[in-house]
């Protein structure tokens, strides 16, 4: 009996490390970008790659900013004109064809969608940056002037 328990313990200890080695590590940050700005004055404005400022004059309260982060970061730093901004985040998943979606179906989490409420601030320079949780430990950032 004791020998059987020892054999089972050895088999389990040999099996577990192999499972850990096969587990995929979290992908490093590969992209951060402002996707949209939302306000009562303009509705949703799509933000193009490389766009430096909003086209629409969002001025007024209740402005929200949507930021996509591909990969895994762990220290987001978000400001509007240097003042910290709070927000929420939701996981973003990928289908086998590479299209991004919410994670309502069982797919692989590849990043996060952040939503920042500017809480009455009416315009300014929005900045988002984050540092990857694993190698290479890179820091990525994006900026947008919201008018």
Outline the structure in words.
- The protein has 147 residues and is mostly beta strands.
- The chain has one domain: Immunoglobulin-like (Sandwich).
- The strands form 2 sheets. Strands 2-1-3-8-6-7 form a 6-stranded antiparallel beta sheet, with no helix packed on it. It has a 4-stranded antiparallel beta sheet with strand order 5-4-9-10, with no helix packed on it.
- The radius of gyration is 21 Å and the shape is globular.
- The N terminus is likely disordered.
Number of DSSP helical runs: 1
CATH topology category name: Immunoglobulin-like
State the helicity in percent bands.
10-25%
Largest sheet: 6 strands, antiparallel
User: Would you identify the regions where 5 or more consecutive residues have pLDDT less than 50?
Assistant: 1-23
Oligomeric state of shown chains: single chain
Mean pLDDT: 81
Q: Assign the CATH class.
A: Mainly Beta
Short description:
The protein is 14% helix and 43% strand.
Blueprint (SSEs and pairs):
Elements: H1 2-22, E1 31-39, E2 43-46, E3 64-70, E4 77-80, E5 83-84, E6 87-94, E7 100-102, E8 108-117, E9 124-131, E10 139-146
Antiparallel strand pairs: 1-2, 1-3, 3-8, 4-5, 4-9, 6-7, 6-8, 9-10
């Amino acid at each position: 009996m004791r020998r059987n328990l020892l054999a089972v313990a050895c088999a389990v200890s040999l099996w577990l490390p192999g499972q850990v080695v096969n587990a995929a590590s979290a992908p490093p940050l590969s992209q951060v970008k402002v996707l949209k700005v939302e306000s009562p004055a303009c509705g949703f404005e799509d933000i193009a790659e490389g766009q430096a400022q909003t086209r629409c004059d969002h001025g007024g309260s209740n402005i929200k900013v949507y930021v996509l982060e591909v990969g895994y970061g762990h220290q987001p730093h978000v400001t509007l004109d240097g003042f910290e901004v709070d927000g929420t985040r939701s996981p973003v998943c990928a289908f086998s064809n590479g299209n991004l979606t919410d994670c309502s179906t069982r797919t692989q989490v590849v990043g996060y969608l952040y939503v920042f409420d500017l809480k009455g601030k009416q315009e300014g320079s929005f900045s988002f940056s984050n540092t990857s949780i694993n190698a290479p430990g890179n820091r990525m950032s994006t900026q947008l002037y919201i008018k």
